[in-house]
Automatic annotation (TrEMBL):
UniProt cross-references to SUPFAM superfamilies, sorted A to Z: Ribosomal protein L13
Protein name: Large ribosomal subunit protein uL13
Organism encoding this protein: Poseidonibacter ostreae
GO biological process, one term: translation
Pfam families: Ribosomal_L13
Sequence intervals crossing the membrane: none
A cellular component annotation (GO) from this entry: cytosolic large ribosomal subunit
UniProt function note: This protein is one of the early assembly proteins of the 50S ribosomal subunit, although it is not seen to bind rRNA by itself. It is important during the early stages of 50S assembly.
Gene Ontology MF, one: structural constituent of ribosome
Family: Belongs to the universal ribosomal protein uL13 family.
Length: 139
């Protein structure tokens, strides 16, 4: 009889992947990043184990958007108190803090559990081309 092999957390090797966002579509970058963080690009993917790689996104402020999303899309926050709903335009978030926008968009594609929170911690986003993770990246 053959059994399916499940990956164990202590046997997983993690790589560092650098993605340059210059002139790439924002949504395509995010879906690629989510699958890498989840570990779906590896042959030993296991849903209940964090088997993804570290992802470094550089030049985050140079991504493109398709359609009119940049002008029309809004993000909402609510603290739980009455009347505390706040609206943030996507264009303002992209200009002021693109790192937060990338993390917020990626979080929506990951599991809504502590496993998803640990996966999101492996995402590093930088608006420019400089990043402090050159020592971890091979090749």
């Amino acid at each position: 009889m053959k059994f399916t092999q499940m990956a164990k957390a202590n046997e997983i090797e993690r790589d560092w992947i650098v993605i340059d966002a210059t002139d790439k579509v924002f949504g395509r970058i995010i879906t690629e990043v989510a699958s890498i963080l989840r570990g779906k690009t590896k042959p030993y993917y296991t849903p209940h184990v964090d088997c993804g790689d570290y992802v470094v996104i550089i030049n985050a402020s140079k991504a493109k958007f398709s359609g009119t999303k940049l002008e029309t899309k809004n993000y909402y926050t609510h603290s739980g108190y009455f009347g505390s709903t706040k609206t943030h335009k996507m264009s303002d978030m992209f200009e002021n803090n693109p790192e937060k926008l990338y993390k917020l968009s990626t979080r929506g594609m990951l599991p809504k559990t502590t496993l998803g929170k640990n996966m999101l911690k492996k995402l590093k986003v930088y608006a420019g081309s400089e990043h402090p993770h050159t020592a971890q990246i091979k090749g």
